[in-house]
Amino acid sequence: MTDLIPIQFDRPGWLLMLLLIVPTYLLARRSIGGLSRAKATMTFAFRLFVILLLSVALAQPIWEKRGEGLTVTVILDRSLSIPLALQRSARDFLSKAIEAPDTREPEDRVSIIVVAKDANIAAMPDRYTAFDLTQDVADRTATNLASAVDLSLAIMPDDTANRIVLVSDGNETEDSVLEAAQVAMANKVPIDVLLIEYEHEKEVIFERIVAPARARIGQSANIKLVLRSQSTTTGTVFLTMDGEPLDLNPDDPSNGLRVELEPGPKVIPITISLDDPGPVQFHATFEPDDLSTDRIDRNNSAVAVTFVGSEGKVLVLERTPEETEYLVKALLESEIAIDRMGPGGITSLVELSAYDAIILANIPRWEFDDQQVRDMHAYVHDLGGGLVMLGGPESFGAGGWIGTELAKALPVKLDPPQTRQMVRGALALIMHSCEMPQGNFWGQKVAQAAIEALSSMDYAGIVEFNWNAGGVPIRSMAVPGHIPCRSSVISPVRSPPPSKWSWGTCPISARRCNSVSRD
Predict the structure, then answer these.
(1) How does pLDDT run across 38-78, given as a tens digit for each residue?
(2) Where are the strands (E) in 158-219, listed by range?
(3) Do 295 and 367 share a structural domain?
(4) Helix (H) or strand (E) run with residue 244 in it
(5) Which has the least CB within 10 A, 74, 320, 494, 504?
(6) Which of 165, 170, 177, 11 is nearest to 103 (CA)?
(7) Do 146 and 180 meet the contact criterion of CB atoms below 8 Å apart?
């Protein structure tokens, strides 16, 4: 019943003040006196209005503006896991359902979100939304339904009821749509699922290539090709190494290997000799004899990489040969194989893996793009490669490497050190206080306060001033690490000889005095 009232209160407890109306009415009846009925009624009405106004004001009323429409956000899965024919069928079905005149009220709105690896807004919430999905999705190799649900919650209007329609096969590869659904449930947004069901009765999948991660030069590597078939079929397997085809069957002129597949997995072992150092990439494909037994050709290939080690090689990245002339000469004299190239020579992490170490010869950060910097960091952090950065006017912090990914792999910090310089000071106290009231007492207090402000590195000394001495000897300064002795402060010389002066020092740590006097 209360849902029909458009007014809500944040602090409804203050509405109990309305109970004051009863004692106010009884008080008004007893205090009518000689008032006329009209005046008594107006007085009671005024009191009633004040009580009502205070109670409602303290209860903090909120006027709710409610909409009559409904906003439906359609999330359409456009990933490659759904066959194109089923994607077209889902699009046509939704288009007819949205554009049907008997299914939408004048206040209803529709928004459209297409999702694959990323979620994109195809249409914002609007009353006249047309279901047009002619635009293509950038990356369809993955499915992130959770991002689409989060995006739909972000664009929903707050003046209508909201709900989500998810059209997908449910095969998500990133994040969790169930966690996103919990957020939608907390916001009281229901999710309707239009499940796209399909089944590939005849399909062959090239699952993977099992190859050793590392091998030595001249070693024979055992390669395993793993396929999986849903039905009995035949075909040919082809294998390339660094783009060059390998002859898997000398009797077959096509270099391919004929295979017969039964339902289930099949492993094809192959032995290959690795004669060249560096990264070796294997790429295998399966071609069926009957295309009807393998409807999807995108899953008919697999890739693997093996790193073949040799006697060792170092990559020198330089801008001019003159900068590394003596370094290269020293490396060659040490019988270390090297390759020299400029900053733009780095093309991939696989290429870097062929080297045991990388030397950056006075090259600034802006000579590399972001991907090259990430590859060099992964080369050190993930592959365990060596990294040497040579100093120079355009290296380290001066070269813009501070805060970069590669800076995390360096054993030194590129930020300049923050040091605090403490300057040694000297304090000379000239004490002449015996002619003022309590002069010795205040002279002692002033000297103590001044000395306590010094550090252990400062100089300090006390001179008992005598006007007849003709000046202050500078040699009365104390040695470092000593403070003036208090006894010299409180023992003024009343009338010393003109040719004499006295002073005292004591170590700060021991506070033990050593008196000094000199003619």
Answers:
(1) 887 888 888 888 888 888 888 888 776 666 788 889 998 88
(2) 161-168, 191-195, 204-210, 214-216
(3) no
(4) strand 244-245
(5) 494
(6) 165
(7) yes
